[in-house]
Design brief:
This protein is an alpha/beta fold and 302 residues long. Among the domains are: 88 residues, Orthogonal Bundle (Arc Repressor Mutant, subunit A), CATH 1.10.10.10; 108 residues, D-Maltodextrin-Binding Protein, domain 2 (3-Layer(aba) Sandwich). 44% of the residues lie in helices and 24% in strands. It has 12 helices and 12 strands. The strands form 3 sheets. Strands 3, 4, 5, 6, 7, 10, 11 and 12 form an 8-stranded mixed β-sheet that branches. It has a two-stranded antiparallel sheet with strand order 1-2. A two-stranded parallel sheet has the order 8-9. Helix 9 links the parallel strand 8 and strand 9. It is globular and about 70 Å long.
Length: 302
């Protein structure tokens, strides 16, 4: 079914940006413009007003957006009913996951799911929590798995599992033989942070603020855009950091990093499953959600 142009149109309408739409749906910006131009030729009217430097819907665009959302939902509903009639569950699921979940948990989950559901294709997009929420709001993923706080305007969020953040140091660090450190010790060492927008950074900043430690009190040595980069920097003695226990499994096992808890308080957060309130779920998505909720995550830590 030819719903691609409508998906592009809705994404532009929701992001109010051709460049953001280009990033989200992996088309070049000229290709996005061509899709919109094709729709405008069909309806013989402008769908977006770009005269003020921002992208807003024209009155005709507002009408099309309303019907486009309904049409896309009907496509999804038709597919679901036909699959039930034929008894064949197939299709594709697009998942957005924040980096810790996408890199350290989901690969095992998806591998196990594919063993029993070989006809369902899964596409995984990994980014920080802010990015995953943007993708969900624009309808370009079916579900998200995120760490950190979620603003629940159009989103339903449910706890999946708990996560604990732990201090990591190099095996050559003076703390390497300790099992725990005090909060006051953290400000004395070069500290490596994730980038702004990261769920992990959000949790660390909240934790420090609760203990009256501001970002400017920390000896921030470097800010990096991925947990893998942070682990590598810590291994090479560039500083200490705090990361998810799931992210440090392999390094802890092989002794390339040492893991320490914090004396005064555990940093615990939820990994959350997020879906759009108006989502019309497919049979493939229903199967994956059922599998995900029953999955025994703890065995991955053993």
């Amino acid at each position: 079914m030819e719903d691609h142009k409508l998906k592009v149109f809705c994404t532009v309408a929701e992001t109010k940006s051709f460049s953001k739409t280009s990033e989200i749906i992996h088309l070049t910006q000229p290709a996005v413009s061509l899709q919109i131009q094709a729709l405008e030729e069909v309806y013989e009217t402008k769908l977006f007003d770009r005269s003020s430097g921002t992208v807003t819907l024209t009155p005709a665009g507002e009408v099309l957006y309303k019907y486009a959302k309904e049409i896309l939902a009907l496509y999804a509903s038709a597919e679901k009913v036909i699959e039930k009639l034929t008894g064949l569950v197939k299709g594709s699921i697009t998942i957005g996951a924040s980096s810790n979940i996408g890199n350290y948990l989901l690969p095992s989950v998806i591998t196990d799911f594919m063993k029993t559901h070989p006809k369902i294709k899964i596409h995984l997009l990994v980014g920080n929590t802010k990015r995953v929420i943007e993708l969900l709001n624009s309808g370009n993923i079916d579900l998200g798995l995120v760490e950190g706080d979620v603003v629940r305007q159009k989103i339903v969020a449910k706890k999946l599992i708990s996560d604990e953040l732990l201090v990591i140091v190099s095996p050559n660090h003076s703390w390497a033989k300790k099992k725990e450190v005090s909060i006051s010790d953290l400000v004395k060492e070069p500290f490596i942070f994730r980038e702004a927008g990261s769920g992990t950074r959000q949790m660390i900043e909240k934790f420090l603020n609760r203990h009256e430690i501001m970002l400017q009190d920390m000896k921030v040595s470097i800010v990096l855009g991925s947990t893998e980069a942070i682990k590598d920097a810590v291994e090479n003695g560039l500083g200490i950091s705090i990361i998810s226990r799931w992210a440090a499994r392999k390094e802890s096992k092989y002794g390339t990093l040492r893991i320490l808890s914090i004396k005064e308080e555990k940093i615990v957060r939820d990994f959350s499953l997020i879906i759009n309130k108006n989502l019309v779920s497919s049979n493939a998505l229903d199967e994956f959600l059922t599998f995900l909720k029953a999955y025994q995550f703890d065995r991955l830590l053993s």
